[in-house]
Amino acid sequence: MRFLLSIGLLLFLLCSSTLLRAQYPIYLQLEELNSTKVIKYYPGQKIQFTTKEYPEAWRKERIMNIIPEDNLIVLETGYITPEEIYALKRTNGSALIFGHMLSKFAGGWMVFGAYASLVDSGYKMSIREVIIGAVAIGVGWVMRKLFGRKKYPMEKLYRLRIMDIRFPAPKIITP
User: Fold this and answer.
1) HSE-CB for 23 with a 13 A CA cutoff
2) Are strands 59-67 and 149-153 parallel, antiparallel or unpaired?
3) CA pair distance 73, 27, nearest whole angstrom
4) 78: left (phi over 0), alpha (psi -120 to 50) or beta
5) Rounded CA Rg of the chain
6) Sheet of 38-41: strands edge to edge?
7) Strand order across the beta sheet in which 72-75 lies
8) Phi and psi angles of residue 126, each rounded to the nearest 5 degrees, phi first
9) Which burial class, exposed, middle or buried, applies to 66 when counting CB atoms under 10 A from its CB (0-12, 13-18, 19+)?
10) DSSP track, 73-141
11) What is the DSSP letter of 169?
């Protein structure tokens, strides 16, 4: 009975933490033009971005607060407006993990094959086994490089806005 009670408490805490973030009334929204898909950033989350002043320098900072009245995003080291952000970068965790898993599998495949060839005089690692390891290393590397990170340039296809959905609505107009 205690086991079921502890499982129920754990599920309640997990669900309530998810619901609390979903009900936060002020957030930063990245939207693709002519699409209904949006990505939301809440205070406490980290964003990786570049500014229009330094478009090649990527910064990764935590959002401390969002002030829609002044159109400001308060970061750990200062503040910025959404118009000053040149591009955002997001990481695809599943692609990075899958790429690392394939690379580790390939490394193990090659190491154990080479070890078996050295220790056992009757076994010799074949070209087919070397090709399997090399292809797994290559696919893992390609997964990490092509699908591991995505850049969102703000000039043409994407827009970053501060969303304020408090009720009753304040008497301000957000861009």
Assistant:
1) 7
2) unpaired
3) 10
4) left
5) 24
6) 38-41, 26-32, 158-164
7) 79-80, 72-75, 59-67, 46-51, 85-91, 149-153
8) -90, 170
9) buried
10) EEESS-EE-GGGEEEEEEE-HHHHHHHHHHHHHHHHHHHHHHHHHHH-TT----HHHHHHHHHHHHHHH
11) P
Q: Can you give the pLDDT of all 175 residues of the chain as single tens digits? A: 776 677 777 777 776 655 455 567 899 999 998 889 999 999 999 999 999 999 999 999 999 999 998 999 999 999 999 999 999 999 999 999 999 999 999 999 999 998 988 888 788 888 999 999 999 999 999 999 999 999 999 988 899 999 988 876 556 666 6
User: Scanning the structure block, which residue is given the tokens 């340039």?
Assistant: 153
pTM score: 0.67
Residues in the chain: 175
The encoded tokens of residue 62 equal 């935590």
